[in-house]
Specification:
Layout lengths: L3 E6 L5 H16 L6 E5 L2 H6 L6 E5 L6 H13 L7 H4 L1 H6 L5 E4 L11 H13 L2 E7 L8 H9 L2 E4 L2 H9 L7 E3 L23 E5 L7 H17 L3 E4 L13 H10 L7 E3 L6 H9 L3 E4 L2 H9 L4 E5 L2 H11 L6 E3 L8 H11 L1 H30 L2
Parallel strand pairs: 1-2, 1-4, 2-3, 4-5, 5-6, 6-7, 8-9, 8-11, 9-10, 11-12, 12-13
C-alpha cells in the first residue's frame, strides 16, 4: 500500500514546524492523496496538544532503553567512526513502517544548514536499502558547510525540493543532477489562517508586528530592536505587538521569555505596546500577523506568514534561507533582509525598516501580482511527486 511519510519533525512547540506539517499534508491532500499521512516526530505530546494527531498518524522517535544500549552505540560510533550507529533504535518505529512503495519526505527545512544531519542521513540510507522513495522536502541547503559524507547523502535522494533558488545553485555546485532538483516556495506559504482574538492594544491595520528569537539575541540586536520600537512610537501613530513563533520550554529556544525582557525595557511605552502571550497555533499566529501593517521577524516562518499575508516585512536573518526566500520574491534581498551579524549600531534595524515603510504601497502591489503564481509552485511540485511515486 502506498504511504506518505513526513519525517524529522521536531515538535509543534515550534510553530514553523507545525506550519510545515499542516501545509504539507494539505498540499498533498489537494494533489489527490486521500489516506492519512504518517508523521515521525520527536515530540508527540506537543503534536497532540496542537491536534496534529487528527490529521496524521504519529510515529514517535525512540530513545535508548538503558545505559548499556547507549554505551554500545557510542562504542560502535567510536570504533567504526560512524555517526549513524544507534539510529536503528531511535528510528525503529518509523523504519518498521516503511515499505518499497512509500514516499518518504524529510521535512526538516533547514537541517542541512547547521550541524551534521545524522537522523536524516540514516533515514536516507535506510530508504535506499528498502527501495523506498526518499525526498528532501522544502529545504534550504548550505552545502559548503559540510564534508564528503553529507554531500554523498545529498546525492542519494531521489528528489530534492528546494524552497529557494540559492539552494538549487548550491546543490548543482556539489554535483546533484538537475533532474533530481525541483524548486518551489516553502509549503507554509499555503497555510490557512484561523481567526482568534487580537491582543489588547493591537490596532488592526496599524500595528507593527515584531518577532525576536534567541538566534538574533545579541546585545546589539536587542538595543536596535528597542530603538526601532521607540522610533515607531515617537514618530508614527502605529502601535507595536511582539508575536512569538516558538513556544519551546527550553530557555534557549522559546521567544516568549525574550519578548518579556524587551517589554520590560520598553515599559515606558506600555500604552502603545502589546504582546501575544496566549498559547496559539501557527494558523492563529498567522491570523494575527495578517492583521499587522508591517512586520519585523527573526523566525523564518513568521516572515513567511507575513509575506503570504501580503504584509510588508523585514527579516532579521541568521542563515541563508531568509536571503534566498526574499531574493526569489523581490529579486534582490538587500532591502528586505538584515543579518543580525551586520547590526553594529542601534539605528541599523530602524534604517532598514524605514525603507520598508517608504515603499509600503509598492511592496503591496508586488505581492498582489507575484504571490498567486508563486504559491502555486509548491502545489505543482507536490503534484509531480504524487504522479511519480504515489499513483
Amino acid at each position: 500500500m502506498n504511504k506518505l511519510f513526513l519525517c524529522g519533525h521536531t515538535g509543534s512547540d515550534n510553530r514553523g514546524c507545525e506550519a510545515i506539517v499542516r501545509s504539507t499534508i494539505g498540499i498533498f491532500n489537494k494533489a489527490g492523496f486521500e489516506d492519512k499521512a504518517m508523521l515521525a516526530t520527536f515530540a508527540p505530546v506537543q503534536d497532540k496538544a496542537r491536534g496534529i494527531d487528527k490529521i496524521a498518524e504519529l510515529l514517535p522517535y525512540g530513545e535508548y532503553k538503558n545505559k548499556a544500549q547507549r554505551a554500545i552505540s557510542a562504542a560502535v560510533r567510536k570504533v567504526f567512526k560512524s555517526k549513524l550507529a544507534g539510529q536503528n533504535i531511535i528510528q525503529k518505529t518509523l523504519w518498521s513502517k516503511i515499505s518499497q512503495e512509500a514516499l518518504v519526505l524529510n521535512i526538516g527545512g533547514d537541517i542541512y544548514c547547521y550541524s551534521t544531519p545524522t537522523v536524516s542521513m540514516a533515514l536516507n540510507k535506510y530508504c535506499e536499502k528498502k527501495g523506498a522513495y526518499s525526498v528532501l522536502w522544502g529545504c534550504t541547503v548550505e552545502a559548503d558547510r559540510f564534508g564528503k559524507d553529507v554531500i554523498r547523502d545529498l546525492l542519494r535522494y531521489d528528489v530534492i525540493v528546494a524552497r529557494e533558488s540559492m539552494t538549487v545553485n548550491a546543490l548543482k555546485k556539489v554535483g546533484v543532477n538537475e533532474s533530481r532538483i525541483l524548486c518551489c516556495c516553502d509549503p507554509a506559504f499555503t497555510l490557512e489562517t484561523e481567526k482568534t482574538s487580537l491582543p489588547q492594544g493591537f490596532v488592526e491595520g496599524n500595528t507593527v508586528g515584531i518577532n525576536v528569537s534567541c538566534y538574533v539575541s545579541s546585545q546589539k540586536t536587542l538595543e536596535a530592536v528597542c530603538y526601532l520600537v521607540e522610533k515607531i512610537i515617537n514618530e508614527t501613530d502605529m502601535n507595536v505587538c511582539f508575536i512569538p513563533h516558538v513556544y519551546n520550554v527550553q530557555k534557549c529556544s522559546g521567544d516568549l521569555a525574550l519578548h518579556k525582557k524587551l517589554l520590560k525595557k520598553l515599559s515606558f511605552y506600555k500604552d502603545r505596546i502589546c504582546a501575544v502571550e496566549a498559547d496559539l497555533s501557527c494558523t492563529e499566529l498567522k491570523y494575527i500577523i495578517s492583521k499587522c501593517r508591517f512586520f519585523v521577524g527573526a523566525r523564518t516562518h513568521s516572515i513567511i506568514a507575513a509575506y503570504s499575508s501580503e504584509v510588508p516585512a523585514l527579516a532579521l536573518g541568521y542563515s541563508m534561507k531568509s536571503v534566498g526566500i526574499a531574493a526569489d520574491i523581490f529579486r534582490n534581498a538587500q532591502d528586505y533582509v538584515l543579518s543580525y551579524k551586520d547590526i553594529e549600531n542601534k539605528a541599523d534595524i530602524y534604517n532598514k525598516f524605514s525603507v520598508i515603510m517608504k515603499n509600503e504601497e509598492k511592496i503591496k502591489a508586488h505581492y498582489k501580482s507575484f504571490m498567486p503564481d508563486y504559491v502555486k509552485t509548491v502545489e505543482k511540485q507536490a503534484g509531480v511527486l504524487m504522479e511519480r511515486y504515489l499513483k
